[in-house]
UniProtKB/TrEMBL annotation, chains A, B:
GO terms for molecular function: homoserine dehydrogenase activity; NADP binding. This is Homoserine dehydrogenase. The active site is at K206 (proton donor). Catalyzes the conversion of L-aspartate-beta-semialdehyde (L-Asa) to L-homoserine (L-Hse), the third step in the biosynthesis of threonine and methionine from aspartate. It catalyses: L-homoserine + NAD(+) = L-aspartate 4-semialdehyde + NADH + H(+); L-homoserine + NADP(+) = L-aspartate 4-semialdehyde + NADPH + H(+). Its cofactor is a metal cation. Keywords: Amino-acid biosynthesis, Methionine biosynthesis, NADP, Oxidoreductase, Sodium, Threonine biosynthesis.
Length: 438, 438
């Protein structure tokens, strides 16, 4: 049945993802061959240390430190080393030597994706990267292919498992941020250096990739507005729960249209926000990921699953491998990654959103009127107000005002908050959170 | 930028889906051309009545009753007429005249898919059908491509919006089955003849398509075990809610392995079952659809969205159209649809599942022991038992036993129920439901 010559597959890296990819490639060799119509031969695995002890046992003769020799003698190269260099040089070498490349390297794609896609395009090779966003969840292929005839208006996702784990523990078990982070670290949901996750860098890299695909526009990671979860307190999480919300770190890529001119632009941003407990994203617990997509014709779609993990990520890598290998066998188009639309990217101040802010105010007549006047002067309209006398003994004589706004420009909302903070009657701005989802 | 010749697209049918497909095709012409690298020209729309008044206004000169002339002069044919004939003959004509075909016709695919894929394969044409299952939700492409390197073990979906709407109203608003169906009918969630939906035929057609793809095996619709929702009562729905479950009509395709020999087989079935309210499928409300997939490496994935609607379904049709058109422009593999594995399909008696049954029993000593002995004799092990004195005045002197079992063979479970029903101390078997999901 198999007529095509064997395809040589080079693997760069044998860490969490690489070792599982190699294992599955060897264990499922027959099934993969029948999917592809050719045998996939694991030609070698480039690592730094060929004699390191590894969790997954693989044939010792596969390991090599000579990545370049492996790359130039392979049909398909899978890059699972991570980091910018030498990953970038290796990928360029693979593409220019005519190999198709598969990578899970979101950091590299977010920084240098345009350059790499350009090179791939020039030489007629393909660069596959499904595993780079939300690991096992098929999200890039559906965006690129299934929704290719639709217009995507919004992509909103929980794309970082570590921060979702922390926020979910705070919400469901009442852990403090520190306790939740300690558990996340212990269970391997958080890296020893948590900065990339907690500060939202990882999510920003992913939203760069999602926005570029969804809007056919090159979105530099520097253009992504980024806020992490470091400032989210247990008090905010509790108050959100009481009000029927949950706080999630959201990565949002959105198409905007000027109401007067119709001119389109896009926004890409990452921040913790309130979403209703009725929203499908609210049920994404622990380290899971989910991406919510709104398209003009398809309406709302959600894609849910494991957003990390060696074997889970390897599933997405192998899906790309089968696509790449089928292309070798049958020839054909592969992945078109052209930034046709090239929409402008707007700063966060230009987006429209809703706010919820919690103020500690003097418990005296006229305070609400003063606050309301400030809101009105910025054309921010109020949806809900809840005023409660403070139970805090240190803050006796004060009351708490929780104000939920209607949709307004982010710039107006943030100016409103600044002005409110300077009012004499406002003793403290205790919390400011955006509200996302309907 | 566009170098390739225009591609001629024939549309068969201008009903709910067809008219929206035509509209989007015309309105998004420029964007589609830039996705594809060629202009897509709507060559004509075949209907029965060219002068019918239609909701969506389209250029009158596009309508024709001469479907055959349209088909044989087109590069890509989109079949959105529905029904078996003449849809089947038209699709065969299109394929044999070298056109690629896109269809949303689940009834036709479930009955004659094998024959159509065989013909497509022989002539080297492609048959795309993403819209046939769960409308707007990209599910077939992810199964076929993204998970091509993984092993799918289970696909469990809510794939019929009408029945989900009815069950959801019963659960959330306490409507009786009749009232819920009346609302569904009024709001267009249910057809005038509800049999296809309510009796599970529509879901059975879809599980046929899902199982064939997931397991690379031809699954005749006649081999699908099918139970509809006609027998589900409000009382059952209420009791389920109290116990932390919700009743959903589930379409399940599952890979089974003989514990002794390891020989694999598959089961495809449709029935109303209890799932935990913690399960992601439990939050699928109204007419929405969702498909839950369990794969060896990827773990659990869920795909959620609109499972019906003209414009939503048109989104999936256009996604297929872009794939088909790209293939024309660049040449290439398209969709491989080969039943390589051809696993045997087992009857429902061979599957393993859990049961919850509710018995009305005589309120006297020793009854529980009698019941437990019957269970043990069938090797069915009990997970939970709740006994309550009956509050029903007609049934005074009786008690209600709600028994949840551990996993056991379906055949043993159903034999157990039959034997229990014949026990003197059991006055009535009030409810028997399977429990799915963990
Ligand atoms: N882990 C996840 O859950 C996950 C999820 C999605 C995406 N990703 C992405 O997948 C990629 C791999 O992640 P990972 O977690 O598998 O990484 P990892 O466990 O740190 O493994 C990295 C591997 O690359 C090898 N390597 C590093 N530098 C090298 C060099 N200069 N030359 C040769 N080999 C080199 C290492 O070799 P030695 O073993 O000899 O040191 C190691 O085997 C990253 O881009 C990551 O962002 C990971
Ligand atoms: N509606 C949904 O939400 C949905 C979702 C998923 C899949 N689907 C599938 O999509 C397909 C189309 O569904 P639909 O709801 O759009 O159907 P529909 O509203 O009943 O429209 C059928 C169209 O086909 C035309 N037609 C029927 N028989 C014909 C014949 N012999 N020759 C020429 N034209 C003929 C009709 O022409 P006239 O207008 O002149 O009568 C009509 O325009 C079906 O296979 C359905 O199962 C539908």
């Amino acid at each position: 049945m198999i007529e095509y010559r064997n395809l040589r597959v080079a693997l760069l890296g044998a860490g969490s993802v690489g070792s599982q990819t190699a294992r599955l490639l060897l264990e499922h060799a027959d099934e993969l061959a029948s999917r592809v119509g050719a045998k996939l031969e694991l030609a070698g695995i480039a690592v730094r240390n060929t004699s390191a002890k590894r969790d997954v046992e693989l044939p010792a003769e596969l390991y090599t430190t000579d990545a370049e020799a492996l790359i130039t003698s392979s049909d398909i190269v899978i890059e699972l080393m991570g980091g910018i260099e030498p990953a970038k040089s290796y990928i360029i070498q693979a593409l220019t030597s005519g190999a198709d490349v598969i990578t899970a390297n979101k950091a590299l794609l977010a920084e240098h994706g345009d350059e790499l896609f350009e090179i791939a395009d020039q030489v007629g090779a393909q660069l596959y990267y499904e595993a780079s966003v939300a690991a096992a969840i098929p999200i890039l292929r559906p965006l690129r292919e299934s929704l290719a005839g639709d217009r995507i208006n919004r992509v909103m996702g929980i794309v970082n498992g570590s921060t979702n784990y922390i926020l979910d523990r705070m919400d469901r078990f009442g852990d403090s941020a520190e306790d939740a982070a300690a558990v996340a670290l212990e269970l391997g949901f958080l890296e020893a250096d948590p900065t990339l996750d907690v500060e939202g860098y990882d999510a920003a890299q992913k939203v760069t990739i999602l926005a570029s695909l969804a809007f056919h526009t090159s979105v530099p990671v520097a253009s992504v507005h980024r806020e992490g979860i470091a400032s989210v307190t247990l008090e905010q999480v509790r108050a959100a729960r009481e009000a029927g919300y949950v706080i999630k770190l959201l990565a949002i890529a959105e198409r905007l249209a000027d109401p007067d001119t119709g001119v389109e632009s896009i926004s890409a941003r990452v921040y913790p926000a309130l979403i209703s407990r009725q929203h499908p994203l609210a049920t994404v617990h622990e380290g899971k990921n989910a991406v919510f997509v709104e398209a003009e014709a398809a309406g709302s779609l959600m894609f849910y699953g494991a957003g990390a993990g060696g074997v889970e990520t390897a599933s997405a890598v192998l899906g790309d491998l089968v696509s790449a290998a089928r292309r070798h066998v049958a020839g054909g188009p592969g992945v078109a990654q052209k930034a046709h639309a090239s929409l402008p990217i707007v700063p966060v101040g230009s987006i429209e959103t809703r706010y919820q802010f919690t103020l500690e105010v003097a418990d005296e007549p006229g305070v609400l009127a003063t606050v309301a006047t400030v809101l009105a002067s910025h054309r921010v309209s109020v949806e809900t107000v809840i005023q409660t006398a403070s139970t805090d003994t240190e803050a006796s004589g004060t009351a708490t005002l929780v104000i939920g706004t209607h949709t307004a420009r982010e710039a107006s909302l943030s100016a409103t908050v600044t002005e409110l903070a300077n009012l004499g009657v406002v003793t403290a701005v205790k919390s400011v959170l955006r509200i996302e989802g309907i």
